[in-house]
């Protein structure tokens, strides 16, 4: 998996009361950690933002980040992406700077970014809360998608089955984009993992942009963690009509979902789920 994971020696303390634990309470072993490194995003030669992320699918991450910032919404607006030269103290190429060349008519936002964005927060650098509520070029409210509740409830397990990096480290979030096929089943279109849940979503959206798939009408975005305001915003800006999370949404996330016409699902655990906005898209069997 390259730089996605890193090996590290650890001291494991076992306190389960077993004879083996009593004889050897401290064990030495090797563990795998999810890699976290900075990524600088440049627009042309101008530094725009630095975010902490798990390396891999970096072009998707940058493309999705620009969609989430409301800067671009069409693949034709993104001319190119390239890694800039950068080395660590040992002279090894870090691949931690990506330069995006945008079409000349793309207007950059008046609000700026502070230099640093952590892996736990995708909007910490915005200048004001008003700047977060960006205007979308797509409207989830116009999407006629209808999802069987049993299909929706099964998505967390489908997501978990595909999480290769989580299997190795237990330390990354995941975002999976699904579409209902002609057989009524959820088809996984794209899955991305990252130490930052917002990065995982940006990687999915960036993949879709580069494939020319925006707006993502008729799709469901399943995420492994909670549903924050920023994730609802990212889904709405990409034209995704349904966002489902295994944990809770925030109050602001629910309000934004209601405003944009997006269906917001939380506590999706296989046998139950809560719908906090847009329940009309969730279809239940006639015998319910």
Task: Walk me through what this model shows.
The protein has 288 residues and is an alpha/beta fold. The protein is built from eight helices and 15 strands. The chain has three domains: 2-34, no CATH class; 37-132, Ubiquitin-like (UB roll), CATH 3.10.20.10; 140-283, Cytidine Deaminase, domain 2, CATH 3.40.140. It has helices spanning 19-23, 58-68, 129-132, 149-161, 164-169, 197-210, 229-237, 251-260; strands at 5-13, 26-34, 37-43, 46-53, 78-83, 97-102, 116-117, 147-148, 173-180, 186-194, 219-223, 242-245, 263-266, 274-277, 282-283. A hairpin with a 2-residue loop joins strand 3 (37-43) and strand 4. Helix 7 runs parallel beside helix 8. 39% of the residues are buried.
Keywords:
288 residues, 8 helices, alpha/beta, Ubiquitin-like (UB roll), 3 domains, Cytidine Deaminase, domain 2, five-stranded mixed β-sheet
Determine the CATH topology of the largest domain: Cytidine Deaminase, domain 2
User: Which regions are unreliable across 5 or more consecutive residues at pLDDT < 50?
Assistant: none
Q: What is the string of helix and strand elements?
A: EHEEEHEEEHEHHEEHEHEHEEE
Largest sheet: 6 strands, mixed
Provide the CATH architecture of the largest domain: 3-Layer(aba) Sandwich
The overall number of domains is 3
Report the β-strand fraction as a percent range: 25-35%
Give the spatial strand order of the biggest sheet: 10-9-11-12-13-14
SS class: alpha/beta
User: Nearest-angstrom radius of gyration?
Assistant: 20 Å
What is the rounded distance between the termini? 45 Å
